[in-house]
Amino acid sequence: MQYLEFEKPLAEIEGTAEELRAMGRQNESMDVEKEAAALDRKAETMLRDLYKGLTAWQKTQVARHPERPHCKDYIDALFTEFTPLAGDRNFADDHAVMGGIARFHDQPVVVLGHEKGNDTKSRIERNFGMARPEGYRKAIRLMDMADRFGLPVITLIDTPGAYPGKGAEERGQSEAIARSTQKCLEIGVPVLATVIGEGGSGGAVAFAAGNRVAMLEHSVYSVISPEGCASILWKDAEKMREAAEALRLTAQDLQKLGVIDRIIQEPLGGAQRAPAETIQAVGKAIATMLKELSGKSGKELIADRRKKFLEMGSKSLAA
After folding, report:
1. Is the pTM of this model over 0.70?
2. CATH topology of domain 61-318
């Protein structure tokens, strides 16, 4: 288990409990279970206290935890008959974006999302979840297909933001993001978005302009990263804690502002401590949101999205 900066006291207690049990396994005459169990109870109490009052910056750290379940984990667990589709039919296939046709609870759907990878090799291959223009154009192609065949679109968002490299800009990064956002808004099928980790900048919005937007309890969603915001406003990236608070990027803040519709509760200690439980909670939320939109016509779904985003602005101004 990889511990975050603010979890260091917890790491010491859990580490001591594990050392005691290791000693007990090596020497069966030693009775260590009672002491180890006491440390377990102390660790659980500390974990509960830590996660009861996380700051915005601490939530950002949790959202970025490398052991949280990623897009591929959700697709493997929640969808059947997944058939991946590759390429934008123009330049290349972007491995930071995965998507295709699948079944969700036996209903045909199109699922797509950002994939960060889970080790050094896969993270480099996936470009750490930072999509290039061809990734967004692949998403547009999949959403067009979903619209043509009347398939709901389910998106899983986990990206620090779109890739800012020179090549991406030369191939029309901003235009691709804008067109992907537009496509989310104009197709006549249900669009359900879930932020499962980081929802960074336009790279996230391009997949998140849906009829329903949900966030995991400790995920974040903002126009810029706290470090980027601090560099612009204070000329100092070390002011990221203040920036995280100012951005109001937590699920709790965004629900109050009307930016998202639903918060999906995570297990105690975050999704990284119980990935399977988290994935099932996301699956239940997707099923509920899909049921809410069932029976609506294409025109009604488009009008629903329009109303949602127009009201979002008024709620934000009022807040």
Report:
1. yes
2. 2-enoyl-CoA Hydratase; Chain A, domain 1 (3.90.226)
